[in-house]
Amino acid sequence: MEFLSRLLTFLSNAIVNVGGWIEGLLVNLGLGEPLVSLAMGLIGAAVVGFFPLLVVIFLIWAYRKLIARMQGRLGPNSSGTWAGPYGILQTFADAIKMLTKEDVRPQGIDVVPYNLAPILVVVVSLMVWAVIPFGPGDALVGTDLTIGIFYILAFSSAGLFVFLMAGWSSNNKYATVGAFRAVAQLIGYEIPQLLAVLAVVMVVGSLRMQDIVAAQDVMFLVAMPVSALIFFLASMAEINARPFELLEAESELVCGYFVEYSGMKFGMFYLAEFMNTVAVAAIFTTLFLGGWRGPWVDQAPILGTLWFLLKMGLVILGWMFFQMTLPRLRIDQMLAFNWKFLVPLGLANLCVVGLVNKGIVAALVGEVSAWTQAGILLGANLVVILATWGILAASERRAWRRQETWQAAQAGELEVGA
Amino acid sequence: MLEQFTFVGLLFFVALFLSIMMIGLAWLLRPKRPNPRKSEIYECGLQPHGEPWVQYKAQYYIFALVFLIFDVEAVFLFPWALAYNWLPFYAVLEGVIFILLLAAALVYVWRKGVLEWV
Amino acid sequence: MTLQQIFFFVFAALTLVGGLAVVTARKLFHAALWLLLTFFGVAGLYVLLEAPFFAAAQLFVYMGAIGILIIFAIMLTRGIMRQDAPRFNEQWWLAGLLAIVLLVVLGWLAWQQPWTTTAAPIREDSLHLLGLALVDPEGFALPFEVASVLLVMALIGAAMIVKEG
Fold first, then answer.
1. Are A56 and A275 in contact (CB under 8 A)?
2. To the nearest whole angstrom, how far is the Cα of B4 from the nearest Cα of chain A?
3. What ipTM does the predicted assembly reach?
4. Is C49 helix (H, G, I), strand (E, B) or coil?
5. N or C, which end of chain B is more exposed by having fewer CB within 10 Å?
6. CATH 1.10.150.450 fits C1-87, yes or no
7. What is the pTM of this model?
8. What's the average pLDDT block by block, 10 residues per block, for chain A (418 residues)?
């Protein structure tokens, strides 16, 4: 009985306790102090580096199985060659296949950028995991940088040049056009992402990820739905999810910027795409769904990690719903949606939330509770939603009337002509 | 403050090691049978025609330029947003004026037809 | 040799090698990639100066926007990727002489300067103070708004060039 209660206490803060046990081992081995902290840092970095890989292995299977089932197909299964129950081992089969495929080297490529691009794309996808908080306290974050969320945005932005490297060095027109389109889409949708994050940072007053989680007594999804929606949509474009899947438009561009890559190099691009999905889901969870917060986290911090993973899964499920039902957009539709809808909406959201929040909080004397604050923010967001709806409806009515006039003129002309 | 970044450096090396290990493993395991037919550039099954560097649309550059303007604007807005909770009302108004000026520029550029993908 | 000094040498080497390679690269696209490496080195130097916000802003604006803009400009120019760009012209000796003179003058000035260092640590809330200073009427409120006007001018100028061409 006492063993059970001790086991439960150990498990309730499992990750931190295991880390402490390893550190104790290292100190007992007689290593000096800086080496111990370096070794612990390396172990932490290895855990943070391998975690996305593990999640991606599971995610690829879940992705293919769920989308297939929702589309009335079977998905990965064991009806042919055995691939585990429900086809779980399919991803391992894919990985082995990619490792053993020949690396077809096209002629005329630029060797150094061609080989560097797959490596850099995975490195950049992994670097953003350094600041994601998996649970309460300092031990469950890689490093709680002062510039937390800005670091993530900066690294995602800085990593865009690898697509140009991959596209240009492939010595292939389709690859280069694909690279251009990829970069045009990715840079465009960074601005709405930024504006949504700015709204969150405004309310929280800090860039640290743990502070953003701590400020969410009410989830920002409820308090600032417009920012959440903007970030959700912009993130779908950043991770190339349908309907923004122009970059690998198989029927148009034949795999876009990685058409000349084969074997594991293609595998790295594929891996990086899924790792981006997981990373952006983690960021959305931290910013808008309250991160690791949930019931009973104070008593058992390991539950924080569990809630975090569950929420991440929910976000990815949400994206999957979009991915399996919507067709692909054209490039002009995608750019117009960004620059003519999301960016003005983001700017308006920032202004309205800023003004309304400050105005009302200044009018109310004394301390405002979290719920009042959330209510004020929700009110400001509702103003933005109603205004946007009104503007869109008015412009739609105008377009409809113009269409009617045009059709009437056509009919009139036909009558006169005949 | 610098100790915060040691983890970032460690993660960079771990990530680099991971990628190189994967590529190295593939290099060890895969067959190497080069063949001139296999090395041709892919162009939907036909022979590649002409130079691979044709003139591309100038619209890509325009969108990158607009993105740059808004990028710099966002970097300016970050300190303002951080200090928001401690700002008096007129300071919030100053930030809103900053945003509105750029929104006006966006509307101007939109009406002038620069944001069309012709 | 502390760890900080090692990292300083690494990032300084990245920046200098990148800078040198930009001007001596044969292909223009490679020059653009070396430029991106230079930007990364400068971001590292910002981190060593305990200004992480500016390091991230450097990555964000320079590597993520200006670098991409330069690469687009290179790739959109017809024919320029085909030929190798000439690396030296006839006045290389004059340029070398001027560079050495500049190096000597700047080096002497830097040596003579009594660089003051402060033992006070950087404040945790320095970014909030920056935000407060940016909108303070006795601070930088006017340059803040003028910066916005500058960006508007840049956008309108770009629109005018596009519409003419």
1. yes
2. 6
3. 0.88
4. coil
5. C
6. no
7. 0.90
8. 79 79 80 80 88 89 86 80 78 85 79 89 91 83 85 90 87 80 89 93 89 88 92 89 71 67 85 91 92 82 87 91 84 88 92 87 73 83 89 89 87 65
